[in-house]
Amino acid sequence: MTSDPGSELWRSGLLVVTFRGTSMLPFLREGRDTVCIERFTGRLKRLDVAFYRNAGGAFVLHRVVRVLPDGYDICGDHLLAAERGVPDSRVLGIMTGFFRGGRYIPCISLPYRLLSSAWAMLRPVRVLAEAARHLLGRVKRKLARCLKGGSTA
Questions:
Q1: How do 71-75 and 14-18 pair as beta strands?
Q2: What angle do CA 49, 20, 77 make, to 5 degrees?
Q3: What is the distance of C-alpha 130 from the center of its chain?
Q4: How far is CA 110 from CA 9, 87, 121, in A?
Q5: Closest CA to 77 of 36, 26, 42, 40
Q6: Can you identify the CATH homologous superfamily of domain 5-106?
Q7: In the chain, helix, strand, coil percent, each to 5?
Q8: Crossing angle of helices 110-121/123-147, nearest 10°?
Q9: How many CB atoms are closer than 10 A to CB 56?
Q10: Contact 44, 94 (CB under 8 A)
Q11: The whole model's pTM is what?
């Protein structure tokens, strides 16, 4: 990958890179999938996968979970908390597809659209499940302390 993928994307209009990270599981897998990103200057739609600079200046590839009048709420498929209010000015491109095992999977394909829509609809359930898991962990730790004779406070 170039030292500045944003410049490469703007210069050529297309960026093809091997995906890194776990934030887009289960759809994109680190080191296995090669993503195709095209320069994009219009308005994104809900469920598009945006290539953008986050508030810290890093390049990120995450899904649009909500379209706002002046930007987007964007979240990785494997994450629970969205980055809120990402302005259009930070969006550089849109993922148009990816290669897995030598096979190209376009984002406009019906199977991809159905699976990504279903996964996005499950996001509130995943947030609740994670909160329940966290709460049960706290209860378990507190019970363990009580059984050992420790304080519950």
A1: unpaired
A2: 40
A3: 17
A4: 27, 29, 16
A5: 26
A6: Umud Fragment, subunit A (2.10.109.10)
A7: 30, 35, 35
A8: 40
A9: 6
A10: yes
A11: 0.77
Q: State the sign of the Cα–Cα–Cα–Cα dihedral 123, 79, 115, 84.
A: positive
pLDDT, mean of residues 121-127: 80
CA distances in angstroms from 140 to 34, 127, 146, listed in the order given? 41, 20, 10
For the chain, the structural domain boundaries read 5-106
Alpha carbon distance 64, 59 (integer Å): 15
CB 33 within 8 A of CB 18: yes
CA dihedral 43, 86, 109, 77 (to 10 degrees): -170
User: If you search the block for the tokens 């980055």, which residue do you land on?
Assistant: 83
Q: What is the pLDDT of residues 16-56, one digit of tens each?
A: 888 889 889 888 999 899 999 999 888 999 999 999 999 88
What's at 92, amino acid-wise?
A: L
